[in-house]
Amino acid sequence: MSTLFRTKSVEQSIKDTEVPEQSLKKSLSALDLTVFGVGVIIGTGIFVLTGKVAKETAGPATALAFVVAGVVCALAALCYAEFASTVPVAGSAYTFSYASLGELVAWIIGWDLVLEFALGTAVVAVGWSGYVRSLLDNIGWSMPDALSGPDAAQGFGFDILAFALVLVLTVVLVLGMKLSARVTTVVVAVKLAVVGIVIVAGLFFVKAANYKPFVPPAEPQPSGAGWDAPLVQLLFGYAPTNFGLMGIFTAASIVFFAFIGFDVVATAAEETRIPQRDMPRGILASLLICTLLYVAVSIVVTGMQHYTELSVSAPLADAFKAVGHPFYAGVISFGAAVGLTTVCLILLLGQTRVFFAMSRDGLLPRFFSKTHPRFGTPYRPTILLGVVIAIVAGVTSINELATLVNIGTLFAFVVVALGVIVLRRIRPDLHRAFRTPWVPLLPIVSVAASVWLMLNLPAETWLRFGVWMVIGVVIYLAYGRRNSGLAQAERR
User: Fold this and answer.
1) Averaged pLDDT, 49-74
2) How would you label 52-81 residue by residue, b for 16+ Cβ within 10 Å and e otherwise?
3) Who's near 408: CB < 8 A, 6+ residues apart?
4) φ, ψ dihedrals at 182, nearest 5°
């Protein structure tokens, strides 16, 4: 049992990054990290979830729901910032767990992140394909149903656009992080310009009457049936409400999806020039920028239309149509399509770095731990995962599996927060360029907030997540436990 919880020292983790054929090229600045963070966080959430939550759960108080979700993420971000500046090694929560909670926990969180990033990349690629097909339809070009994915085809359908997007982004990642950063910077600039247009143009159509009531009276939420119900309802008989004060917290568990991705920034710690300084800046700055933009957009859209009249599928675009300006609807669709490109790129980046770190530690075959002699990127896992995810994106439709991304992210938040407490206790001597304030209180609050949001997810999501974790534990016991670097060192 003791071997399951053996830890890899921070010093050894950093030493492993100095092996020439296994080292990643350091080329990123705080600005690059902030751009990555904004690029991956701002996606469909800002263009879609605002209307759904405002109409069904929180009304104009959706802005407060974004604040609550942002605070939950900020608590986790402070913990991530301490770890990323103390252990500047690829792998994010996986690496942090290995240094504090032990090998089995590290494997579990790494396996969790593999699911989160892979599924997230595929789902986002399919969403991107849908926006692009919509734009093509607007100019009179239509994709054949057989090449538009399983949702459009009567029989078997292959989403050629989603497949091609993942392959192109795979090539970009293989060619180097600096190129990835430049591509992301350009795309994020376009995306922020579109969001800015929505906010500025929408302000001219805001009516104060649409904000009344700002917090609508509470209504019982329709009860879920069986595994469709939130886990908190099955366990404790608590029925979440729509609207009212508790409706804001219910809404926060939904809009949390719009914040997913800031933790991906931590996977690039090893490729940052001055990680002790730049990682905390990049993580916290990107989260702050996105929270402010989300709040501004939700205030504008609920001011343009009364929350009871908002569209669920395309609230921003339809709000402009309602006030007689359909031109902006096309601009918003273009911004969404462009924005999803960076979301897909950075999720794929996070996936490959976690896989690379696990391979370098021996928990996965070491064949994947070699970096490209010219580009300094983990090209082998990047190519493998890129091809696999491209195929999955080509044959997958967007469905309930997207909620697995939520639960996977929140689980990572819990582990990182606990890891901060443990590492403070077992290694108080470590130099910490950034220190999470109010330890252990703040990490404990972070754990409680993340667990609460997890409990509001459907029970069937927990079941699927549990099955994936069981598969991961079996693989670890069969391969990783005996082949890890720590196991080999003990045998020597």
Assistant:
1) 90
2) bbbbbbbbbbbbbbbbbbbebbbbbbbbbb
3) 112, 113, 115, 116, 119, 465
4) -65, -45
Please tell me the distance from the alpha carbon of residue 217 to that of residue 366, in angstroms, as a whole number: 58
Q: Is the Cβ–Cβ distance between 485 and 8 less than 8 Å?
A: yes
- How many angstroms separate the CA atoms of 285 and 36, rounded? 11
Query: Which residue in the block uniquely carries the two structure tokens 């359908």?
Result: 157
296 Ramachandran zone, left/alpha/beta (phi>0; psi -120 to 50): alpha
Contact in structure between 187 and 198 (CB atoms under 8 Å): no
What's the pTM?
A: 0.85
> In 305-402, where does DSSP find H-type helix?
315-322, 327-360, 379-395
The Cα–Cα gap between 417 and 313 comes to 35
How many angstroms separate the CA atoms of 306 and 309, rounded?
A: 6
184 neighbors 343 (Cβ within 8 angstroms)? no
Q: Facing residues of 458 across strands?
A: 230
Residues 6+ apart with CB under 8 A from 432: 82, 85, 86
Mean pLDDT of 401-419: 83
Nearest Cα residue to 166 out of 334, 345, 363:
345
- Say if residue 206 is exposed, middle or buried (CB neighbours under 10 Å; 0-12, 13-18, 19+): middle
Amino acid residing at 68: V
Does the CA dihedral 222-225-226-229 come out positive or negative?
Answer: negative
Q: How many CB atoms lie within 10 A of CB 187?
A: 19
**Is the CB of residue 293 less than 8 Å from the CB of residue 196?**
no
Q: What are the distances in angstroms from CA 291 to CA 65, 202, 247? A: 11, 18, 19
**Closest C-alpha to 442, from 80, 196, 157, 147:** 80
70's tokens: 């942002």
Report the percentage of the chain scoring pLDDT > 90.
Answer: 38
Rounded-to-integer distance, Cα 233 and Cα 459, Å: 9
Residues 135-193: tens digit of each pLDDT: 777 677 877 877 777 766 566 678 899 999 999 999 989 988 776 778 888 888 888 88
| Amino acid 298: pLDDT | 93
Q: Shortest CA distance to 368 belongs to which of 27, 21, 8?
A: 21
Distance CA 89, CA 299 (A): 39
Calpha distance 263→109 (Å, rounded): 13
CA nearest neighbour of 147 among 136, 161, 137:
161
The answer to whether the beta carbons of residues 187 and 168 sit under 8 Å apart is: no
Provide the residue type at 349 as one letter: L
Of 45, 100, 105, nearest in space to 73 by CA: 45
- The tokens 């790129």 sit on which residue? 345
